[in-house]
């Protein structure tokens, strides 16, 4: 007895697969790994999106690629905010430190005033700017 199979369906439909770059983009966007992941999420996301668009429907994952791109830009934006805040705090701390430490005008810029008992290099007496 010969077994018969049903005739194949009209037209062959190629199975779709999820783009690996789209998956990597979304994962790196979620993890961000000290902002390196955010930058890689942007790169992989844009590459994945263009590959999916050029695949003619054989690849899926466009939503994951877009999610990776969005999360990558959020990470980069947070990096910019952290850098701006750190720079503002550093300048504020430098200003506060320079106000707190008295300086000797005769020793050059940025030199601390000597402790009591040590005189100013130009004078035999303690530096006049010492409180």
Distance between the termini: 113 Å
Largest sheet: 2 strands, parallel
Helix content estimate: 40-55%
Give the amount of beta strand, in percent.
Answer: under 5%
- SSE pattern: EHHEH
Which overall shape is indicated by the principal axes computed on the Cα atoms? rod-shaped
Number of helix segments? 3
Mean pLDDT: 79
Strand order of the largest sheet: 1-2
**Rounded to an integer, what's the Rg over CA atoms?**
33 Å
Structural class designation: mainly alpha
Residue runs with pLDDT of under 50 for 5 or more positions: none
What's the number of extended β-strand segments? Answer: 2
Task: Detail the topology: elements first, then pairings.
Layout: E1 17-18, H1 20-31, H2 36-54, E2 59-60, H3 62-100
Helix pairs in contact: 1-2, 1-3, 2-3
Task: Give your account of this protein's structure.
The protein is mainly alpha-helical and 131 residues long. The chain is 53% helix and 3% strand. It has 3 helices and 2 strands. It is rod-shaped and about 100 Å long. The model has no long low-confidence stretch (mean pLDDT 79).
